[in-house]
């Protein structure tokens, strides 16, 4: 009876009807298209730190109070730096001061206001207690002379009037006029030099 019912059902639907009920039609399975190719990232490499200059032992960087800091090694100079490098020595405190020119004492009056070296023999010296006057002529009025004030006397190993009398000297300083006579005020011992005898 079941068979008859099944056949009847098949017959009612017509030939081929119900075939889809018995065996459905198989559709080919098409895989979905692959996604568009994306930029392929390079495999991540481990992070590399930038190069670091070698550092000495951390304890060496510490400086004890009262001690000198460590010296750095000298840096090599390139040719341009060597050409530009000019060494200037420190000025010596005991060296004579600079001057424009050396002149005999008879010409000092021609150089008023200039820093000069004036040379000659001290033929007369007078210490008033307030200043020592070193004269290059016996008739000293109106003539060039050197003046050492009493405040500078302690710099000299003895009384200036005794040290320089009859000596050939060089006075270095600004030639100024005082009461109609040219003079150089000697404020420091290095402004007066005893010259070798000719």
What does it look like?
The protein is an alpha+beta fold and 198 residues long. It has a domain at 102-194: OB fold (Dihydrolipoamide Acetyltransferase, E2P) (Beta Barrel), CATH 2.40.50.140. 14% of the residues lie in helices and 21% in strands. The protein has 4 helices and 9 strands; from the N terminus they run αααβββββαββββ. It has helices spanning 2-13, 19-22, 79-84, 160-164, and strands spanning 102-104, 115-121, 124-127, 131-135, 145-149, 168-174, 176-178, 181-185, 192-194. The strands form 2 sheets. It has a 5-stranded mixed β-sheet with strand order 3-4-5-8-7. Strand 7 (176-178) and strand 8 form a beta hairpin. The longest helix has 12 residues, at 2-13. The chain is rod-shaped. The termini are far apart.
Q: Rough shape?
A: rod-shaped
- Supply the CATH architecture of the domain at 102-194: Beta Barrel
- CA-atom Rg in angstroms: 55 Å
- What is the C-level CATH assignment of the domain at 102-194? Mainly Beta
Q: Order of strands across the widest beta sheet?
A: 3-4-5-8-7
SSE class: alpha+beta
Q: What is the averaged pLDDT score?
A: 76
Number of helices: 4
> What is the CATH superfamily label of the domain at 102-194?
Nucleic acid-binding proteins
Low-confidence stretches: 3-10, 17-21
Hey, roughly how much beta strand do the residues contain? 15-25%
Distance between the termini: 165 Å
- Residues in helix, %: 10-25%
Q: What is the H/E string?
A: HHHEEEEEHEEEE
What's the CATH topology name of the domain at 102-194? OB fold (Dihydrolipoamide Acetyltransferase, E2P)
The number of E-state strands comes to: 9
What is the makeup of the main sheet?
5 strands, mixed
């Amino acid at each position: 009876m079941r068979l008859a019912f099944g056949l009847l059902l098949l017959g009612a639907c017509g030939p081929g009807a119900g075939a889809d009920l018995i065996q459905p039609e198989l559709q080919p399975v098409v895989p979905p298209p692959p996604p568009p190719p994306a930029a392929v990232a390079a495999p991540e490499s481990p992070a590399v730190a930038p190069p670091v200059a070698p550092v000495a032992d951390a304890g060496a960087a510490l400086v004890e109070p009262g001690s000198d800091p460590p010296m750095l090694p000298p840096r090599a100079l390139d040719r341009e730096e060597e050409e530009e490098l000019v060494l200037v020595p420190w000025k010596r405190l005991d060296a004579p001061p600079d001057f424009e020119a050396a002149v005999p004492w008879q010409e000092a009056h021609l150089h008023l206001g200039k820093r000069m070296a004036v040379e000659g023999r001290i033929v007369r010296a007078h210490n008033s207690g307030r200043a020592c006057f070193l004269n290059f002529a016996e008739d000293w009025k109106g003539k060039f002379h050197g003046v050492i004030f009493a405040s500078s006397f302690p710099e000299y190993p003895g009384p200036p009037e005794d040290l320089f009398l009859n000596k050939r000297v060089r006075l270095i300083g600004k030639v100024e006029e005082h009461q109609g006579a040219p003079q150089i005020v000697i404020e420091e011992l290095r402004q007066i030099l005893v010259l070798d005898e000719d």
